[in-house]
C-alpha cells in the first residue's frame, strides 16, 4: 500500500464542503481540518504509484475550492506500538 500525505490550501469560506468532497474521492482514506499554513490534510492510499496521479492531480486538485496542494509520499509506516518502543526511556513500568 502506498500512502501519500496531501497538504491542502482551500478557499477559507468553503473548507467544510471542500473537505467533504475530498473525503468522498476514491483513494482518499481520511481528511483532517488542521491549524497552520494549510487548511486540510488528506491521506491517500493506493496500491500502485500510477494511481497517485489519478487521485491527486486527476481529481483532488480539481475540487472546486482547492487553491494549492503539497504532496508527500510516505517511505515507511510506523505503528503506534513501534513509536512507543522507539521513544521509550527504558524505565520500568510503574504498576
UniProtKB/TrEMBL annotation:
GO biological process: response to amino acid
InterPro entries xref list: Dimeric_a/b-barrel (IPR011008), Tscrpt_reg_AsnC/Lrp_C (IPR019887)
SUPFAM superfamilies, per database record: Dimeric alpha+beta barrel (SSF54909)
Occurrences of domain Transcription regulator AsnC/Lrp ligand binding (ranges): 6-77
Molecular function terms, GO-annotated: sequence-specific DNA binding
GO cellular component: cytosol
Xref: PANTHER family: LEUCINE-RESPONSIVE REGULATORY PROTEIN (PTHR30154), TRANSCRIPTIONAL REGULATOR AZLB (PTHR30154:SF34)
Name used for this protein in its record: Transcriptional regulator
Species this protein is from: Actinoallomurus iriomotensis
Amino acid at each position: 500500500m502506498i500512502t501519500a500525505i496531501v497538504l491542502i490550501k482551500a478557499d477559507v469560506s468553503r473548507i467544510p464542503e471542500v473537505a467533504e468532497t475530498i473525503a468522498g474521492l476514491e483513494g482518499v482514506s481520511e481528511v483532517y481540518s488542521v491549524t497552520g499554513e494549510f487548511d486540510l490534510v488528506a491521506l491517500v492510499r493506493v496500491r500502485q504509484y500510477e494511481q497517485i496521479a489519478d487521485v491527486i492531480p486527476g481529481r483532488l486538485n480539481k475540487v472546486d475550492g482547492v487553491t494549492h496542494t503539497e504532496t508527500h509520499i510516505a517511505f515507511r509506516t510506523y505503528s503506534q506500538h513501534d513509536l512507543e518502543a522507539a521513544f521509550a526511556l527504558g524505565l520500568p513500568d510503574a504498576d
